[in-house]
Design a protein that fits this description.
This protein is α+β, with helices and mostly antiparallel strands. Helix content is 51%, strand content 8%.
């Protein structure tokens, strides 16, 4: 069971984990060892070092935590090189320049349609009316999911992201729903694999999937992409818009540019730093190692807190302020061998959402915003705004 130096079960932590991160960093520094012997990394430079270091990976924890991520442990999410490299390469073959260009056009067209409809209504929930349908359509299109299965895919993804949380925070009813979603998703992927769309990952990976082992790997990989790619992009769009609406000066500065695609894309990088949709990158020490002088024996559980690293004042002056003039590289998508494969698409979707939403002068309707109960994946639950129709 993963241990932390703060109580992650409280609503106060869900609403503002950064306050807790800062308290621990002030008393313990950038690396903290818990009473159980786990190591928690809160510093930017220390997090960078761990994420790049092949001495830290998933091998030592896979057996005991294989059910905690909503996908089987055999996918490349929880494997280390060289197996990880081979599996990841299979997926990357689907990300051709032509495919990314096709998705870029589709993302812009779909975002424009969704935001226009929301603006015509005058008021909208950015999460339900823009972020969720956009992310669901893109991830389904990327994989090559038939139209009649897409709603079920999105529903399963929303549940599977909870499986990333510490098991003690998931009640019995939610565990049962997660289990059913996992079975349903695997069944639907198997169906789609027999009749893949003309484009997408399933078509690219269908060759050789008659072999039971290859087929299982394909199903698990696609399930992982659904779980990881859907809810996290929703979180990025929702968290980013919420941050902008809280910093009216930065919102006005961005809106004054048009906003141009270049300015919106640059803003997305600071929004990723400020409130990333994934807060934790789990690792284990594969051999005896150390982190900034702290001994880390083989098998030690290491929790790299991405949200904390992105608020490290040594790397980001005034880290709790949103500033679009920052240059330092954030860690929201991880680093090294496990760098997020869907980072480019998440950036494209969020950039498109910002550009289209800001042309309608969004204003918050409700002052208090609630977050999803998930701890590892952080996302605003709903974000009601007023929008100008023109």
């Amino acid at each position: 069971m993963r241990q932390f130096p703060f109580d992650v079960s409280t609503e106060e932590f869900v609403q503002d984990p950064y306050r807790f991160f800062e308290q621990v960093r002030r008393t313990s520094g950038p690396v903290h060892r818990t009473r159980s012997g786990d190591v928690v990394v809160l510093g930017y430079f220390e997090a960078m070092a761990v994420l790049r270091d092949p001495r830290f990976g998933h091998g030592a924890q896979t057996a005991q935590e294989q059910t905690n991520y909503g996908v089987p442990a055999r996918t490349f999410l929880l494997t280390d090189p060289p197996g990880h490299t081979c599996q990841r390469a299979r997926v990357r073959r689907a990300f051709t320049a032509r495919e990314v260009l096709r998705l870029r056009v589709k993302i812009n067209e779909l975002t424009a349609t969704l935001v226009h409809a929301a603006a015509q209504a005058g008021q909208a929930d950015i999460v339900a009316d823009v972020a969720r349908p956009l992310s669901a359509t893109v991830i389904a299109d990327l994989i090559g999911v038939p139209e009649h299965l897409r709603d079920r895919f999105a529903q399963a993804a929303a549940l599977l992201v909870r499986a990333m949380d510490p098991p003690q925070l998931i009640d019995a009813e939610t565990r049962e729903r997660i289990a059913r979603a996992r079975v349903s998703l695997a069944r639907d992927i198997n169906v789609a694999l027999r009749h893949p769309s003309d484009t997408g990952l399933l078509r690219a990976m269908a060759h050789g999937s008659a072999d039971p082992t290859a087929r299982a790997e394909t199903v698990a990989t696609c399930a992982q992409l659904v779980a990881a790619g859907y809810e996290t992009t929703v979180g990025l769009i929702a968290n980013g818009m919420h941050a902008l609406l809280q910093h009216r000066d930065q919102l006005a500065q961005l809106a004054a540019t048009g906003p141009s695609e270049k300015a919106a894309a640059a803003a997305v990088e600071e929004l990723l730093r400020y409130d990333p949709p994934i807060q934790l990158a789990p690792r284990s020490a594969l051999v005896d190692a150390d982190i900034a002088g702290t001994p880390v024996p083989r098998g030690t559980v290491v929790s790299v807190l991405l949200g904390a690293a992105n608020r490290d004042p040594r790397a980001f002056p005034q880290p709790h302020l949103l500033r679009f003039d920052r240059q330092t590289r954030h860690l929201a998508f991880g680093l090294g061998a496990h760098y997020c494969l869907g980072a480019a698409l998440a950036r494209l979707e969020t950039t498109a959402a910002l550009r289209h939403l800001l042309t309608h002068s969004p204003r918050l309707v409700e002052p208090r915003i609630l977050y999803s109960p998930a701890r590892v994946a952080r996302s605003v639950r709903s974000l009601h705004v007023r929008l100008n129709a023109s």
